[in-house]
Here is the input.
Amino acid sequence: MKEELVLNGIVLYATLVGEYDKRLVVLTKERGKITIFANGARRPGSQFRAASQSFVMGSFTVTSGRESYNLHKVDVSEYFEELPMDMEKMCYASYFCELMSYYTREGDSCVKNLNLLYVTLKALIKGHMPNTLIKAVYENRLMDIEGQGIHCYSCVKCSDKELTYFNCKQGGLLCTDCAKKTNTTRRISSTLVYTLQFIQSEPLGELFSFSLSDDALKELVSVTDSFLNEYVDKKFKSLEILSTLA
Ligand SMILES: [Zn+2]
Here is the structure.
């Protein structure tokens, strides 16, 4: 008999397979992003029925196959059941999972990613911050974990600490002199500099505990969106749906 493993994680998404089964893509602490087959998950009375859905967090007892895993038992610690009740939040949560899936692979160490996803889904449910701010915080923090964050502590070119411009292609913030030399025209506020640094360095428990003025939020969203467009080569289904809701 094959050895059973217990993997802890969050279901990023679930797809239907055949008449009764489901294929789960799960971000796990122990093995990174993996595929788990939940056989019979759609049969009435199946123990997997409630657990084989997006955002479910728990311990998955599996056996390992050649390219995927088979589910034997699941202990759910969190369903995030508030998310599917709000279409807009549901779209944001799906996008967070899609972006996470884009960045992660099997075998990666994903503890930071998993913790970030957890606190972000919690923040979305709490609703103390605008969804657009939660999205920008998540994107910046995740890009930073993946070594692709906006360079924001010193000038990309000369390491000067006085930061006044942003250039996507250069990878981040610039001082006035280097901005001139690189034909950079996008001026930024000191609030943006501070906000980016805060998002990259603040402990996760405090990450979703600040507010921004409307103008500062617009600037953060605009800079983050252009950075993502430059470095992430994928269209996300959930964002397309979200744009139709606005
Ligand atoms: Zn410089």
DSSP finds seven helices and seven strands in the chain.
